[in-house]
Amino acid sequence: MYRILFFSLALLLSVSLYAQEIIVKGKVTCYNRFGLNNVSIIVKSTKQEYKTDSLGLFSFKCDKGEMLQFKASGFSSKKVKLKNYPDSVNVDLRFIENSRNVEIATGYGYISKDKLTYAMQNLSGEDFSRYSTIIEAIEGKFTSVSITSNGIQMRGASTLNQGDENALLLIDGVKVSFGEFKNIPTSEIKSINVLKGGAAARYGAQGFGGVVVVVTKGGKAK
């Protein structure tokens, strides 16, 4: 009798632990690099659906024993078990190569796959402290980018005045002047992204001359 009671209590405890609600956080990317916007995340048992934000990030509550399915147009879907992700759920979705007309929704706007490589260039994982200034880090590293006395210009950007429009400069999502941009300590730089064409469309008229996005070690692009 006591043995049956013991096993019954153990079973109830295990079910309770399995159903324990937790906060699930993570990020969905493509090419292990670009955050995907508006990806559907479906909780298997409840069919509850959540979406990633413009940076590919998500956060919601569900049982820690759940199975999640990640779905986005133009990408292969993916299922993950939460128990296999003790810290955060970072998922990379594979782009379906024959989906040529599908646009990739990244944190920088919707970009067709054919234009993705052309539109965005990136410097990350470098030791920027070896450069004396951020200008020195950019010069010679990015194609079609030139530094002037009052800004940064990009050939091939969709400018209103035929090539003399300076690029929009952002540090951790905040617009800054060229003077402020030049003075950022290189030891604080985590990554530098150069955007033009479709990649810069998210920023409207301000991005006609292209956009330079700098993320610092203590910040996050918005």
Structural class: alpha+beta
Radius of gyration: 22 Å
How many helices?
4
| CATH topology (fold) name of the largest domain | Ferric Hydroxamate Uptake Protein, Chain A, domain 1
Strand order of the largest sheet: 11-16-17-14-15
Number of DSSP strand runs: 17
**N-to-C CA distance:** 61 Å
CATH class designation of the largest domain: Mainly Beta
Tally of distinct domains: 2
Shape: elongated
CATH architecture designation of the largest domain: Beta Complex
Which stretches of 5+ consecutive residues score pLDDT under 50?
105-110, 159-163
Helix/strand order, N-terminal first: HEEEEEEEEEEHEHEEEEHEE
Properties at a glance:
222 residues, alpha+beta, Immunoglobulin-like, Ferric Hydroxamate Uptake Protein, Chain A, domain 1, 2 domains, 5-stranded mixed beta sheet, 4-stranded mixed beta sheet, 4 helices, elongated
Summarize this, please?
Helix content is 15%, strand content 35%.
